[in-house]
Amino acid sequence: MFLKYIVLNGLPNGPIAFNCGSWVQSKFDDPEKRIFFSNKSYLPSQTPRGLKDLREKELANLRGNGEGERKTSDRIYDYDVYNDLGNPDSKSELGRPILGGNESYPYPRRCRTGRPPCRTDPLSETRSGSFYVPRDEEFSEVKEASFITKTVDSVLHALIPSLETSLLDSNLGFPLFSDIDQLYYQGITIPKLKNPGLLQIILPRLVKAVSDSEDRLLKFETPAMFLKDKFSWFRDEEFSRQTLAGVNPYSIKLVMEWPLKSALDPDVYGPPESAITKELVERGMKGFMTLDEALEQKKLFIIDYHDLLLPYVSKVRQIEGTTLYGSRALFFLTPDCTLKPLAIELTRPPMDGKPQWKQVFTPGLEATGYWLWRFAKTHFLAHDSGYHELVSHWLRTHCATEPYVIATNRQLSVMHPIYKLLHPHLRYTMQINALAREVLINADGIIETSFSTRKYSMELSSAAYDQQWRFDREALPADLINRGIAVEDPTAPHGLKLLIEDYPFANDGLILWDALKQWVADYVNYYYKDASMVQSDPELQAWWTEIRTKGHEDKKDEPWWPVLQTPEDLIGTIATIAWVASAHHSAVNFGQYAFAAYFPNRPTIARTNMPSEDPTREGWQRFLDNPDFELLVCFPSQVQATKVIAILDVLSNHSPDEEYIGEYMEPAWGEEPDIKEAFERFSARLKELEVIIDARNADDSLKNRGGAGVVPYELLKPFSEAGVTGKGVPYSISI
How far is Cα of residue 4 from the mean position of the Cα atoms in its chain? Predict the structure, then answer.
């Protein structure tokens, strides 16, 4: 039974409310009596004497003893490594390395399930049975019935097999660009589905029409970017704009050193010097300024995946139907605050007896060079799509947050005010992560079969965690400063001066960050009057220690972890966690269908090498004779593209029971007048942000936010709008 709340009436001082929000098991399944506390918050030192033992007992129940296989009805939170992504007992080629707990593949921890080990690899866990999450972390009945699980299941077990059957050759690409358009205009013919009505109910936005007639027609909703301007993906201006106002605004950074140079071992990967030269850059800037002036004035920006991807190139190229390069893209900041692409560099390390190959591609008017530039953009965008999904999205939000959920439930009593502050930011995250391990990031799952890095995708995210992830850089201001996009300036709004003044993600995000941090500050300062109260709180200190030493154990000895000694320390830590779970996740998640469902704009995989890499006479002639067909062959296959479109729709949707930041108030917050007033101020500030975003999108001088055929930037509009998809910032990583 799901027990929502209990209210005791008829008491001398008025009713007492208990916000339970928990599944209660039959006494035959769980003979242990349940404990529920009222909405009143207490620090450990202020707990009424009669409740102290119960407070400690409930935490002990939630921690468990670390033994045995977890049952569906359990409420136990514990840690384990990612040792259940592979399935070596099914096929040896489905074995995958264990992520976490070893020097080769450092990684955050997941929730322990306790399933038995694999027969063929005792260090890996079997994937049999359900993917356990504590009972109260599972989706509500509303979300479960109408949304996620059935949607994913239908896509995987109904739609995709039908597509594969109809195509016969799962590697078949789209013969014509007009065939891609038919996905949205006229639909595609597929074998008759077993239950087309169910699919239409479950995918109301994705599947516009599933016909039960002989035509068996499947049609997808037109993505916003394609609907606004079907040719926008051609334009370099839109390619650049989406680095600031698209679905992955976290990769662009300032060029801080010149010449560009790899840090990888030259004995293994070849000469480290970039082929992007001073002459090439100055030619691309067309007389605006010299290279030295551009560097001094901080006008050169880069997205650089070269060193992260290059170690995987030779391994990935052994897999049929994909290829890979180390890549980087260079941009120039023009006087109207738009970015102009200058160059894309692609590198292949020495392999198969061949020396290192690298080439720089630039926008140009000459036909052959223009088509090579378009191919280079396709490869780079496939890399950007993979990095976005595996790092900006999965690693930095979903994966990094799961340890916060586990530690919060193990170390902070539900009576603790910080538990009550964090609670809405942790909703559904463990369940959606378990679903990801089940069907998205697992061996031969959606990511591995549809993205360029294929079976090495999760290893890549481990490398990014090792080389790039730092908790102290996850808050928005710290992230912008780290990327060189902003500098501290006490006289500027938000205390930061943006080097790219028209940066929609950062412009809107900083307002949301300030409002969020102020709300956290008001809340924390109400309960913690001085540093001694923070330092002497045993639950709080155990929580922060466990996040560092258990949840992110592979980085426990890093010197950059913030200390937790003062209210200011606590405010910064909580605000960072809340930002990642709400605004960061919304910025990289809810625009996926709008920008990537028309896959030429953001292909997930490039399947063929560049035409100019060691070309044969016949291959080069095919490129010259029919470059658009060769590009279609490079794009994802029909099965890959359709599969990704389906999943992107699932990921871009809001749940019917979504809780939006600043809109929903936790019952416990309303118990304290000062906290309720602070929340109302927070909510009012977010309503102001809505108005600001609308005004900015209507400002013709802000070229990165609007214009003819441009999708306006609304991913950080806090509140939802009825009937409008993708808008609203949920508290938590709930999808």
Answer: 31
Tokens (6 digits) for 728? 């609203």
Residue 735 falls in the annotated catalytic set: yes
State the catalytic residue, choosing from 306, 416, 585, 654: 585
The helix/strand/coil state of 566 is coil
What are the average pLDDT values for consecutive 10-residue runs of the chain, which has 735 residues? 93 91 89 92 96 96 94 95 97 96 97 96 91 89 56 59 62 92 82 54 48 59 94 96 98 97 98 97 93 97 98 97 98 97 98 97 94 98 98 98 98 98 96 93 95 98 98 98 97 95 98 98 98 98 98 98 98 98 98 96 98 97 97 95 89 85 93 96 97 96 95 92 66 93
Among residues 393, 494, 552, 584, the one annotated as catalytic is: 393
Active site residue 675: no
Distance between CA 429 and CA 136 in Å, rounded?
11
pTM: 0.95
Catalytic annotation, pick one of 398, 416, 423, 654: 398
Whether 398 is catalytic is yes
Question: Is 552 designated active site?
Answer: no
- Torsion over CA: 559, 561, 564, 570 (sign): positive
Q: Which amino acid makes up residue 393?
A: H
Partners of residue 351 on adjacent β-strands = 354
418 classed as catalytic: no
3-state secondary structure of 253: strand
> 65-89 burial string, b = 16+ CB within 10 Å, else e?
eeeeebeeebbbbbbbbbbbbbbbb
CA distance 80 to 413: 22
